[in-house]
Amino acid sequence: MEIITKYFPNITELQAEQFAQLEVLYNDWNSKINVISRKDIHNLYEHHVLHSLGIAKLINFRPDTNIMDLGTGGGFPGIPLAILFPEANFHLVDSIGKKVRVAQEVATAIGLQNVRFSHARAEEIKDKYDFVVTRAVMSMVDLIKIARKNIAKEQHNALPNGIIALKGGELDGEIAAVKNIAAVWPLNDYFEEEYFETKKVVHVGITSK
Predict the structure, then answer these.
(1) pLDDT band at residue 182 using 50, 70 and 90 as cut-offs
(2) Do 83 and 115 form a contact (C-beta atoms < 8 A)?
(3) Which of 43, 114, 160, 201 could lock onto 205 through a cystine, CB 3.0 to 4.6 A?
């Protein structure tokens, strides 16, 4: 938990309490439904919560910003971002029902009011959002194909509407294949832990027709 206040020292007492509750909740749920690798659950705050909050180093979501977390799994990056931005609206989507259930139960337990959930494939979601966020396994090209339809036209934030993906490893080839790439931010510019050496945030601006 200390790693969160290290990089986000201005969180409120309520936010600190919500972040603190995640450890017990995810340990409990992970013992029943494996949403985080059993080998990695002890790294919950560094590898999952703080990693999710890397997006907040790129953008400060304005009130009433609408965000879809595509492939949320057990709630990442959506739940940490929803805690940090209580006035933004989050829709957490995953095709695996048991993972959605874990995310929903965690959000309910910590009293999040700004999240909703769907057990669905990305192709089924027709709503419009300012941003689609994801801890992306699929390539940016495939991600853009799937999520382009969900990006709203009207702008509300300093960063253009589009896709914000948490990515790892070598991205040069993948980025070269994508037009409209706005920026790639190495997370080791913000977080000093070794885990973030190869982690990046990628933003692709999407212009709706």
Answers:
(1) low
(2) no
(3) 160
